[in-house]
Amino acid sequence: DTGVSQDPRHKITKRGQNVTFRCDPISEHNRLYWYRQTLGQGPEFLTYFQNEAQLEKSRLLSDRFSAERPKGSFSTLEIQRTEQGDSAMYLCASSRQGEQFFGPGTRLTVL
Amino acid sequence: LAKTTQPISMDSYEGQEVNITCSHNNIATNDYITWYQQFPSQGPRFIIQGYKTKVTNEVASLFIPADRKSSTLSLPRVSLSDTAVYYCLVGDLYGRDDKIIFGKGTRLHILP
């Protein structure tokens, strides 16, 4: 257990539905990251927060994806109108500076 | 961010020392070299990080030659539980932009 938690651990949804994932970072960490990982691939960077400010978004993050980090604590990642191609493991990581600590991930399956 | 190249997969036996080499020809002066380990259905876990020469911790050693264009992760006396994917990463992890760019990693399979 790294101290980073994610909820839910698994999510099955039908195509077209909206889903929201939550990440609780290590409390003193000001940086929070979201990654997506598909089978056989390394994690791909999606977006990054420093405190409550979203500083960078990957081109992978289409308009259907939105992330927030109100008050610079926990973060949510929402996917609207899910597609089968969104099926993946969504990983959250936090850091103060340098080493990133990853959560266990949320596995999304879109039917 | 410097691109890395590492073997796709490796097999070894319990009790052996395993060395995984990573190439990073375009490493920048400010870049550190970091290795992560990932088990199935878990997030990656930091193993070791270094800048030059040799770094050792309770889990592994990291060897970096003088030109820093490659690095070798050394796992002493591996066990079955070391079966995992190992990622080599380079970047300015203490800078403003420290997102991690993962490659496909090396799938290490330890045999009994």
Keywords for this entry:
heterodimer; A: 111 residues; mainly beta; seven-stranded mixed beta sheet; B: 112 residues; five-stranded mixed beta sheet; four-stranded antiparallel beta sheet; 9 strands
Which runs of chain B of at least 5 residues are low in confidence (pLDDT < 50)?
none
Could you tell me how far the N terminus lies from the C terminus of chain A, measured between alpha carbons in angstroms?
30 Å
* C-alpha termini separation of chain B: 38 Å
SSE order of chain A, one letter for each helix or strand: EEEEEEEEEEE
The largest sheet of chain B has its strands arranged as 1-9-8-3-4
Tally the beta strands of chain A.
11
Share of residues in helices of chain B: under 10%
Largest sheet of chain B: 5 strands, mixed
Question: Given the C-alpha coordinates, what overall shape of chain A results?
Answer: globular
Helix coverage percent of residues of chain A? Answer: under 10%
Outline of the structure:
The complex is a heterodimer of chains A (111) and B (112). Chain A has 111 residues and is mainly β.
Mind explaining what this structure looks like?
- The complex is a heterodimer of chains A (111) and B (112).
- Chain A has 111 residues and is mainly beta.
- Chain A is 0% helix and 50% strand.
- Chain A is built from no helices and eleven strands.
- In chain A, the strands form two sheets. In chain A, strands 2, 4, 5, 6, 9, 10 and 11 form a seven-stranded mixed β-sheet that branches.
- In chain A, strand 7 and strand 8 form a beta hairpin.
- With 112 residues, chain B is mostly beta strands.
- In chain B, the strands form two sheets. In chain B, strands 1-9-8-3-4 form a five-stranded mixed β-sheet, with no helix packed on it.
- The relative contact order of chain B is 0.33.
- The mean pLDDT of chain B is 90.
- Chains A and B meet through strand 4, strand 5, strand 9 and strand 10 of A and strand 4 of B.
